[in-house]
Task: structure prediction
Amino acid sequence: MLILVINAGSSSLKYQLVDTEAKKVMAKGLCERVGASDSFHKHGIDADERVISEYLPDHHAAINSVLRALTDDDYGVIDDLSKIDAVGHRVVHGGEYFDSSVVIDEKNLEKIAACSKLAPLHNPAAVEGIRACQKIMPEVMQVAVFDTSFHQSMPQKAYMYPLPYELYRGQSIRKYGFHGTSHRYVADRAAQFLGKPLEELQLITCHLGNGCSLAAIDHAKSVDTTMGFTPLDGLMMGTRCGSIDPAIVLYLINYVGLTSDEVNDIMNKQSGLLGISGLSNDLRDVRSAAEAGNDRAQLAYEMYSYSVKKHIGAYVFTMAGVDAIILTAGVGENCDRMRRMIFEGLEPMGIKIDHERNLQKSGERVISTDDSRVKILVIPTNEEYMIAQDVKHIYQELHNEAA
Ligand code: ADP
Result:
């Protein structure tokens, strides 16, 4: 099956054309600065990448540009659009409406649009992308895959905030959690890697990229996660602060005299690794500086690893056990120094990192010692593949029902 995976952001649109049988990415690319006069479209894989300079006033134009590139006589990978069996759309917020991926009909699209108040930068872009695809490819099945749906299994004690209950009922204020597609993918892979059904495992998955979150996965169900009502909550991240005393926000507004927009900017764009190191949100830069003796870069490392360690500890207790801890995304997959610091000192708890294995560079791998009671795994995430898999299953179910 050929599945087009679309990830529409507020001013960008990423895509991959996935052949699910061959498990191969046929083409991929990215439209950037959608809506601005200097928009462009990068299409192709690695050395074959080309930049198509094109004015893309909106997501409809971006989708048109993508479909033209996929069918281009010169560098396209399919003869015509009828070769695409289905489209999978990454949607950031599904609110309480969706606990799994769904076929997009008018009712579901209305619900996705209704979640825009919870994800004002992302959901409107997804809706625009979906409408554009529906218009250009009216016969092709469209599926929505949500960042939040995997975490809908959390028990109420985990997803409620101790605020007045009416704020949950009236304003939908609760923990939703994000990165669900990534947590689900690496948990599935970990179960296969360990040779056990996911339903028999207790896992903690750590998605450590620019955005960071942990999930506690108990017998195949997400039972807690560190991101909350928004992706700002939880761990310290590249530029986001994660959990802080909420009274700091009031103090900055009422006593320091900042506007709410300024505070928002500080917490989302000027904090985390960048805010503490004063250098960069990219851990590679922070690492070079820390190794050269920069104290603030070293502090950023210590705070980040401490934040991950602390939340792992919380989930070991709340699940009353853990079989494996999985690291993924840019930092989790690549930074041996951070991994070492996260697991440092946990040997008495039966969590033992193997320092040689920790230096291995690529692929799915175990980095704990053979006698570690808890396995530590590094599993590269692949959200697009997971989206394509969901689309394939839904497509096959519908076609089997029809047959
Ligand atoms: P996103 O959340 O944007 O998808 P990624 O998962 O690609 O982010 O992670 C990006 C981050 O991964 C970079 O900002 C950088 O901090 C980190 N990273 C990538 N490679 C390395 C590396 N070799 N060493 C340390 N950090 C790395």
Remarks:
- Residues 295-319 form the longest helix (25 residues).
- The chain has two domains: 2-146, 197-383.
- Residues 257 and 351 are 46 Å apart (CA to CA).
